[in-house]
Amino acid sequence: MTQTTAESPIRKQRAQLNVRTLRTDRWWLTPALTFAGLMSFLIYGIWAILDKSYFAEPYIAPFSSPCLATSCPEGARFLGLAPFGDWYTLPPGLLILGLPGGFRLTCYYYRKSYYRSFWLSPPACAVSEPHTKYSGETRLPLIIQNVHRYFFYLAVVIGAILAYDAVLAFRDEHGNWGHVGLGTLILLANAVLIFCYTLGCHSCRHITAGRLNHFSKHPLRYKAWTFVSKLNARHQQFAWASMYSVMIADLYVRLVAKGVINFPFA
Predict the structure, then answer these.
(1) CA atoms within 13 A of residue 56's CA, in its CB half-sphere
(2) Is the pTM of this model over 0.90?
(3) Residue spans per domain, the chain
């Protein structure tokens, strides 16, 4: 059989584009806003980790929880424990930074966000990227993104700790239950959004029932999978909402600790 060369005329007729894209809308707006949003989180996170005003009874700033060293105020220590003892004197947030940070950094949605906004790979649909090669996530360093499923388990622990902190926020500075301040509500809302984002993770959906062949034989797992799937459908929204809720909650506690916010029911 003779080989046809039917592709040759087609190739010659292809339009030779000398522009990056033919799109006339503001395609650059989304990656620009995404870049600004993620940068604000990074800048705030660096400041918060180094800031020492992270505890105002009964509130503890989320970026510094859990507090696991004796250098932490007694009321801020997680479960009253200090397993890292006296030798650790650095900011408490550095101890747990890699757990929620690693979970968000390797999250499928965030990967898409910073690939497009920071690396322009690609910046938007139907817009060419400046890179000449593409290897995906098959080699270092991006192959490390595959550890996301393991960060999920650690993120669940951090989410549980933040929920525990929100429960403790219902106490007053004397340890009496029944206190409800603005900080209580902020920490509670943050804990809910953190769990919605964490449980809506694609890895959670797969772990819940992603490998089942017969849902009918596993009704409880099917119900859990259905619930997680609903959260997963809004994973992008929960990613942004929880990112800003944890910043707002953290900043609020620090402002109370610094005395900047000081009013009844704070």
Answers:
(1) 23
(2) no
(3) 27-128+137-258
